[in-house]
Amino acid sequence: GNTYLNVPQVFNFSYVYNLPWYQNGRGWKGLALGGWRYTGMTSIQSGFSLTPGLSVAFPGLATRPDRVSGSVTGPKTAQEWFNTAAFAAPPFGYFGSAAQGSIYGPAMVDFDMGLYKDFHINERNMLEFRAEAFNIFNHTNFSGVQTAFGAGNYGQVTSALDPRIFEFSLRYQF
């Protein structure tokens, strides 16, 4: 089966754009509006491979459940990420037949963006202003799914990645 590190599709795109407005501007317009840089990074990937587990009182030799129906793909909701009826507890004394990595976890869609400006004080001194936003569109990216058959939250999403985060910083270079 698939390893837990398997991610079938990954797309990453990063960019830097020097904004052309007021680059050679004089006075307060040039100082305030010129020299800005817009940056971004987009990451889109399918979910990691997840392995079904077993959480029953007397598992015997089994560490995985039995695969009993055809499709593992489910509704992909927070309450039921995969088809939980696709698995059952194996009979006592038998190993489970579910394959490793047979469940695909939640995908990730993330857009990070930043705005930067350098303020040159003199030849050696510079002040850099940064405004950065991570997951700027606040897209919910689920991360954990309970795959242990017999657990109280079996098949449910148990966690999510960080929501939108803004950061502002000043850096003085001398």
Structural commentary:
Strand 8 and strand 9 form a beta hairpin. The protein is rod-shaped. It contains 1 helix and 13 strands, in the order βαββββββββββββ. The longest helix is centred in the N-terminal third of the chain and has 7 residues, at 27-33. The mean pLDDT is 91. The N and C termini lie far apart (55 Å). The protein has a 5-stranded antiparallel β-sheet with strand order 1-2-8-9-13, with no helix packed on it. Strands 3-7 form a two-stranded antiparallel sheet. A two-stranded parallel sheet has the order 4-11. 4% of the residues lie in helices and 40% in strands. It is mainly beta and 174 residues long.
Short synopsis of the structure:
The protein is mainly β and 174 residues long. 4% of the residues lie in helices and 40% in strands. A hairpin with a 5-residue loop joins strand 8 and strand 9 (126-134).
Key features of this structure:
174 residues; mainly beta; rod-shaped; five-stranded antiparallel β-sheet
| Helix count, DSSP H or I runs of 4 or more residues | 1
Mean pLDDT: 91
| Beta-strand content | 35-45%
One letter per element, helices H and strands E, the order comes to EHEEEEEEEEEEEE
What structural class do you assign from the helix and strand content? mainly beta
Amino-to-carboxy terminus distance: 55 Å
The largest β sheet comes out as:
5 strands, antiparallel
Q: Walk across the major sheet and give the strand order.
A: 1-2-8-9-13
Number of strands: 13
- What are the low-pLDDT stretches, counting only 5+ consecutive residues below 50? none
**Rg on CA atoms, Å:** 25 Å
What's the oligomerization state?
Answer: single chain
Characterize the overall form.
Answer: rod-shaped
Helical amount: under 10%
